[in-house]
Design goal:
Organism: Frisingicoccus caecimuris
GO molecular function, one term: mismatched DNA binding
Number of strands: 23
GO biological process, one term: mismatch repair
Family: Belongs to the DNA mismatch repair MutL/HexB family.
InterPro entries: DNA_mismatch_repair_CS, DNA_mismatch_repair_MutL, DNA_mismatch_S5_2-like, HATPase_C_sf, MutL/Mlh/PMS, MutL/Mlh/Pms-like, MutL_C, MutL_C_dimsub
Number of domains: 3
Strand content: 15-25%
Number of helices: 20
Strand order of the largest sheet: 5-4-3-6-2-1-7-8
Radius of gyration: 32 Å
Helix content: 25-40%
Structural class: alpha+beta
Distance between the termini: 89 Å
């Protein structure tokens, strides 16, 4: 007997379903697109448990005839095309006739439908591809699909789904794109009995964008409307000030279908190239109307990938149009007057160990702790302003070099006591042991060069310390320690900063709220899509809280698994980098001295969180060789 056999129908359907139904969002996409093709002007999507236990989709479209219902659940049965030639002129979102058969093969499906001219509707049930019942019932015009227990008969597929929150996030993103692709349709999205999205269906795209992204985004949009032979482009692009950290805010639609196209993406990003920073991506919502003969949508099962017959001409059209829009507008960011933010006391959680002494800040206008300290523990911080002084300056003025003997002894003794009590773990990178408790008192701070590097002489060597990398490392280790030990210190800000978030950002913030709190952020729901940022990590005075939170959310948009410690480390490294004293910023010798002392306490003081060295050295012998004093 031969080894090759024809598979049975049930197995064939389950295999085919894997190409169309990858996850709950695939079911929602196919059924909502069917509703739009049926002429619906209102669509309601309700899910529970991320769509795994229940998906209910209701529309007011044309409905289905009773005689067509059973036929609709057969593979490759459709009302949208009759032959291969129709693919060249297809305008509907669906056309393959695979969606209903694929969904019914891996779920328990119930259908309620009624046409406008029928006296009664019809209720149809099919589980795992097997018909269960069909009966006449009373129901409103339109169609309702109820999908229960998705992948109940394919447990391997269900096992590889992500968490319910993540799967619900995928569906939320899909509903946002669908609402932008068809502003003329009113969409309602309900997740676990909570309304998450409701659009008016008035046909105005900007109203949709305001509803989804909020006031700050919609106030910085530029309208786009242009056309040439065979193509028309409409929509909105964002001013460079609202560029984001990932491509999730680039949305492109062709003939009402959300698509991903390297040609369009490249054209849009190239148009912004001279307007944005590196690793920033534009905000763009663009609709294209193309002759169906100019593109092929039958490329991928999801129909999100398309091919263009004249891709180069399309690229040129998009690039030139967007450049004209960007160059034709005033893009200077406006600084709006606001009430000065007042700092209030740090609110630490109870600690089992003493709080470490904060590093001396080197940015002007910083918040000072109200507690008084002795001269051996702190140095008064002056206001720092960049000035065009000579590159190298002496450590202290001549009058300051020789302090009274009693004061010097007290200072050194107090310093020794404070460093011994902390008992930091130390490593030696250099044979001379620059960053050790014993060597600390024998450092000779020469001065600052290029307003960035500090020169220290010690034991016949010249050490050069990068002030930004050093400060970044100090902040990073403090933040990581507090995060790991769940002992954040929060600096309350007054008045709080109001954040208007998109649906995706709200989901991310709620998903990672515990991790944000462990970092030291404090949020409070302000109603709707607004959140009040009431506190920030206490060691990050110099950074702008709103921008930092948005950047963190952008970076987290690609992290759909539970946040791991290494991922948190990347975010904290970013926070430390942005808050650290910068290069080309002059700080005082006392501040540099305090910074070096804090660096001494670090577990690994020799590199910043991104791997750049904090210290390099040159021996006296090497220096004399350079001057040919030694041959």
């Amino acid at each position: 007997m031969g080894k090759i056999q024809v598979l049975d129908g049930e197995t064939i359907n389950k295999i085919a379903a894997g190409e169309v139904v990858e996850r709950p969002s695939s079911v929602v996409k196919e059924l909502v697109e069917n509703a739009i093709d049926a002429g619906a002007t209102a669509v309601t999507v309700e899910i529970q448990d991320g769509g795994t236990s229940l998906i209910r989709i209701t529309d007011n479209g044309s409905g289905m005839e009773k005689d067509d219902i059973s036929m609709a659940f057969l593979r490759h049965s459709t009302s949208k095309i009759r032959s291969a030639q129709d693919l060249q002129t297809i305008h509907s979102l669906g056309f393959r006739g695979e969606a209903l058969s694929s969904i019914s093969a891996v779920a328990q499906v119930e259908l309620l439908t009624k046409t406008a001219h029928a006296m009664t509707g019809c209720r149809y049930q099919i589980n795992g591809g097997v018909e269960k019942s069909m009966e006449d019932i009373g129901c409103p015009d339109g169609t309702t699909f109820i999908v229960r227990q998705l992948f109940y008969n394919t447990p391997a597929r269900r096992k590889f789904l992500k968490s319910n929150i993540t799967e619900a996030g995928y569906i939320s993103d899909l509903m946002v794109r669908l609402s932008m692709s068809h502003p003329e349709v009113s969409f309602k999205f309900i997740n676990n009995r909570q309304n998450r999205l409701h659009t008016s269906g008035n046909g105005r795209l900007k109203d949709i964008l305001y509803h989804i992204y909020g006031r700050d985004i919609s106030a910085n949009l530029l309208p786009v409307e242009a056309g040439q032979k065979g193509v028309r482009m409409t929509g909105f692009i964002g001013k460079p000030i609202i560029c984001r950290g990932n491509r999730s805010y680039e949305n492109y639609f062709i003939n009402g279908r959300y698509i991903k196209s390297p040609v369009i993406t490249q054209a849009v990003e190239d148009a912004y190239k001279t307007f944005t920073m590196v690793h920033k991506f534009p905000f763009a919502i663009l609709h294209f109307t193309l002759d169906t003969a100019e593109l092929d949508v039958n490329v991928h099962p999801t129909k999100m990938e398309v091919r263009f017959s004249h891709g180069q001409e399309l690229y040129k059209f998009i690039y030139e149009t967007l450049r004209q829009v960007l160059f034709g507008r005033e893009l200077i960011p406006e600084v709006k007057p606001s009430e000065p933010k007042q700092a209030v006391a740090v609110v630490p959680k109870p600690l089992s160990k003493p709080i470490e002494r904060p590093v001396i800040r080197s940015t002007s206008g910083l918040i000072e702790h109200p507690t008084e300290r002795s001269a051996a523990q702190t140095v008064t911080q002056p206001k720092v302003t960049p000035t065009p002084k000579p590159d190298i300056r002496p450590e202290l003025k001549e009058t300051e070099e020789k302090l009274p003997e009693p004061f010097e002894k007290k200072r050194l003794e107090a310093l020794r006591v404070s460093t011994v009590e902390d008992k930091p773990q130390q490593y030696e990178l250099f044979e001379t042991g620059l960053l050790t408790k014993e060597a600390r008192v024998r450092h000779k701070l020469i001065g600052q060069v290029f307003d960035t590097y500090w020169i220290v002489e010690y034991d016949g060597k010249l050490f050069i310390i990068d002030q930004h990398a050093a400060h970044e490392k100090v902040l990073y280790e403090k933040l990581m320690k507090r995060f790991k030990e769940n002992q954040p210190m929060t600096q309350l800000i007054q008045p709080p900063i109001i954040l208007t978030l998109s649906m995706t950002e709200m989901d991310l913030l709620n998903r990672y709220m515990d991790q944000f709190k462990k970092m030291g952020f404090e949020f409070e729901s302000f109603g709707g899509k607004e959140y009040a940022l009431r506190g920030v990590p206490s060691d990050l005075y110099g950074f702008t809280g709103k921008e930092m939170v948005i950047e963190l959310l952008d970076e987290l948009a690609g992290e759909f698994e539970r946040m791991r410690t290494d991922v948190i480390g990347d975010k904290i490294a970013t926070m430390a980098c942005k808050a650290a004293v910068k290069g080309n910023m002059r700080i005082s010798s006392k501040e540099a001295d305090a910074l070096i002392e804090e660096l001494l306490r670090a577990e690994n003081p020799y590199t910043c969180p991104h791997g750049r060295p904090t210290i390099i050295s040159m021996t006296k012998t090497e220096l004399e060789k350079r001057f040919k004093r030694i041959v």
